[in-house]
Specification:
By secondary structure, the protein is of the alpha/beta class. The protein has 3 domains: 3-117, Response regulator (Rossmann fold); 130-294, P-loop containing nucleotide triphosphate hydrolases (Rossmann fold, 3-Layer(aba) Sandwich), CATH 3.40.50.300; 299-435, Helicase, Ruva Protein, domain 3 (Orthogonal Bundle). Helix content is 46%, strand content 13%. The protein is built from 20 helices and 14 strands. Strands 2-1-3-4-5 form a 5-stranded parallel beta sheet, sandwiched between helices. It starts with a strand and ends with a helix. Residues 366-385 have low confidence and may be disordered.
């Protein structure tokens, strides 16, 4: 995807130099020589990045910046300030500039600033269905405030994708996005992972460690699979959210923090509350703004666009002109995709890798049964037996490669540890089978 940049500078030479350099690193620049024109002729929200000079006639960079932010547009803005006007830079930052560069500057310095504030590979969020479009609109809305979001939905529906989108559309863009998987870490480690510890806080704490909360300061903290958090930690998390400060283990004083919290779960949290497994007060703190991602099978309009998107990404990597055959498109629409977008993504990759031709065909019955040496139990056809069979085999293979290590298997397949555990149960994969 091409990144667009809006350059605003009254000095034609400077603007031209910026334009040329940014083109060379893959940007698509649009140049204006005064800010008032910009506001009349284009929508600043349409750009991936804005670079503006400060000292300009008619409208200064500061006024321009203020107007952009007043309109609720959070595109990152880099201001260029003259030598010896540090105060200007400070003012600009207070008014919502993402960063600044001081004249005279080298292009490398500007590039470093850009790299810092823009993730190099901005992930696209495919949303052709009405429900996903609504969710993206909502994500942009909630991004404007610091409201705490709880994302629910089955595994693989795109909860992390949406969490990242909220972060990118918020004023916290350019600040850290830190994700913690509460299911993958043991209770004792999770506390220090989240809150950090001082040197010597407990046996084995040889050095001070900064926790994820502190790492996420001024940015966004994603608490993945929040339902898996132990009760003692739930209490500490509640305190952190209420007091906006954390205690490092063994620390002397609390550390104040400014962090936006997004949590996810694929469990029924109200039920967990009823069963006494999840703190009710914490639930209300986290569930300020709930967003539910629908399963892929309930948004058919996303299936083909997602498949094309994954295919295109793969085609670029493999240097092949991959495309979907009408038969495969048909097949994709008929599957139930219980693993949601992640399952579709993995399916597309597998199909492309084994396909001898660029036009991908649906798996044939014989190929499917050949790839399924363990016919432990027949999958029900309405659940898309072929894909389930392949999935089962992939998991068994990954488990064998990692000698049964769930965490590493999960990493290899891009699934959560919980999902792996569930799948092992669901597919009745035994230790004997893993051992081969
Ligand atoms: N709308 C989308 N557009 C593009 N890619 C998507 C979209 N939704 C999901 N994906 C891709 O599908 C995969 C799964 O998405 P994600 O990790 O966000 O799911 P999740 O809901 O967090 O799953 P889990 O509960 O297992 O953690 C990722 O590789 C992600 O990039
Ligand atoms: Mg996730």
């Amino acid at each position: 995807m091409t990144k667009t940049v809006l350059i605003v500078d009254d000095e034609a030479d400077m603007a031209f130099a910026l334009e040329e350099s940014l083109k060379r690193v893959g940007f698509q620049p649009t140049v204006f020589h005064n800010a008032a024109d910009v506001l009349q002729k284009v929508n600043p929200a349409d750009f991936s990045l804005i670079i503006t000079d400060m000292k300009m006639p008619r409208m200064t960079g500061i006024e321009f910046l203020q107007e952009i932010r007043r309109r609720g547009i959070f595109v990152p803005v880099i201001v260029i300030t003259g030598f010896g006007t540090v105060q200007n830079a400070v003012d600009a930052m207070k008014l919502g500039a993402t960063d600044y560069v001081m004249k005279p500057f080298s292009f490398d310095a500007l590039q470093a600033t850009i790299d810092r504030i823009m993730p190099p590979d901005e992930p696209a969020v495919i949303s052709e269905s009405r429900s996903m479009k609504a969710i993206l609109t909502l994500a942009r809305e909630v991004a404007k405030s610091d409201i705490t979001v709880l994302l629910t939905g089955e595994s693989g529906t795109g909860k992390e994708v949406i969490a990242r989108a909220i972060h990118r559309h918020s004023h916290r863009i350019g600040k850290p996005f830190v994700a913690v998987n509460c299911a993958a870490i043991s209770e004792s480690l999770l506390e220090s992972e989240l809150f950090g510890h001082e040197k010597g806080a407990f046996t084995g704490a040889a050095d001070r460690r900064i926790g994820k909360f502190e790492l996420a300061n001024h940015g966004t903290l994603l608490l993945d699979e929040i339902s898996e958090m132990a009760p003692s930690l739930q209490a500490k998390l509640l305190r952190a959210i209420q007091e906006r400060e954390i205690d490092r283990i063994g620390g002397k004083a609390p550390v104040p923090l400014d962090v936006r919290i997004i949590s996810t779960t694929n469990r029924d949290l109200p039920l967990e509350v009823k069963q006494g497994k999840f703190r009710e007060d914490l639930y209300y703190r986290l569930n300020v703004f709930p967003m539910e991602l629908p399963p892929l099978r309930d948004r058919q309009d996303d299936i083909i666009p997602l498949a094309r998107f994954f295919l295109q990404r793969l085609a670029q990597k493999m240097g092949r002109a991959l495309c979907l055959s009408p038969e495969l498109a048909d097949y994709l629409l008929k599957q139930s995709w219980r693993g949601n977008v992640r399952e579709l993504e993995n399916f597309i990759y597998r199909t492309a890798v084994v396909s001898g031709t660029d036009m991908l065909q649906p798996p044939t019955v014989s190929a499917a049964s050949a790839s399924e040496p363990f016919s432990a139990e027949p999958s029900s056809p309405q659940q898309g037996g072929t894909i389930k069979d392949m999935e089962r085999q992939m998991i068994v293979m990954a488990l064998r490669e990692t000698a049964g290590n769930r965490t590493r298997t999960a990493e290899q397949l891009g699934l959560s540890v919980r999902t792996i555990r569930n799948k092992i149960k669901e597919y009745a994969i035994s230790d004997a089978e893993i051992a081969g």
